[in-house]
Amino acid sequence: MTVMDMLIQIPEDASDGVFTVQDLLQLPETDRYQLELHEGVIRVVPPPKPEANDVQLDLAFYFRARGRKVYTEMGVKFNDHSYRIPDVTVLRPGCTATTEAVQSPDIVDLLVEVVSPTSVDEDRLVKAKVYASAGIPQYWRVEPTVTGYVVVQGLLQDGRYVPVGEVALVELLAGGGGLG
């Protein structure tokens, strides 16, 4: 990837350096990276590597087999200056996604992030805080280990995620240890 590939045309009306979700959505789409917004700051996020993408798809099939509405890499708008693209989004029972590019956190029951070496602090701390502040009932992190992946399951209690389970991904996919 060259430096030119990373250049982003900044909207003219965002000269104060604080961007809105609307500013972000006006930028051209690309398959080279994703754009998220954290407190008005644009974050360039590389697309998932094939192994992480496999985990996303495995979890999507897991939830769909249980009758849940689930999406990979669906945009969620938390407020005018905060927009994330979680790896896996499971909707609340009875809710459906709109045809819009961004969804409300009100329809979300569970968000999953597949942790990579470059996203550990972001996934463990920052995203957990954003998701908890929005009232998302469950947040799972899929953490790599030397023997495979472990799913750390958290439930929202008193404004933060409390760990309620940890299960090997292979065990979860085989039908054990799930909350969702």
Notes on the structure:
It is a single chain. By secondary structure, the chain is of the alpha+beta class. The protein has a domain at 48-79 and 86-173: tt1808, chain A, CATH 3.90.1570. 24% of the residues lie in helices and 32% in strands. It has five helices and ten strands, in the order ααββαβββββαβββα. It has helices spanning 3-6, 21-25, 50-65, 120-133, 169-173, and strands spanning 34-38, 41-45, 70-72, 76-79, 82-84, 88-91, 108-114, 138-145, 148-157, 160-168. A six-stranded mixed beta sheet has the order 3-6-7-8-9-10. Strands 1-2 form a two-stranded antiparallel sheet. The chain starts with a helix and ends in a 7-residue tail after the last helix. The relative contact order is 0.12. The model is unreliable at 1-7 (pLDDT under 50).
Highlighted features:
180 residues; alpha+beta; tt1808, chain A; six-stranded mixed beta sheet; two-stranded antiparallel ribbon; 5 helices
Short description:
This is Uma2 family endonuclease. The protein is α+β, with helices and mostly antiparallel strands and 180 residues long. It contains five helices and ten strands, in the order ααββαβββββαβββα.
Low-confidence spans:
1-7
| CATH topology (fold) name of the domain at 48-79 and 86-173 | tt1808, chain A
Q: Tally of extended strands?
A: 10
What letter string, H or E per element, gives the SSE order?
A: HHEEHEEEEEHEEEH
**CATH homologous superfamily title of the domain at 48-79 and 86-173:** tt1808, chain A
**Residues in β-strands, percent:** 25-35%
> Termini separation (Å)?
38 Å
How much helical structure, as a percent, in the residues? 10-25%
What is the spatial order of strands in the main beta sheet?
3-6-7-8-9-10
What's the CATH class of the domain at 48-79 and 86-173, please? Alpha Beta
InterPro entries: Nuclease_put_TT1808, Restrct_endonuc-II-like, Uma2
Protein name: Uma2 family endonuclease
Keywords: Endonuclease, Hydrolase, Nuclease
Pfam families: Uma2 (PF05685)
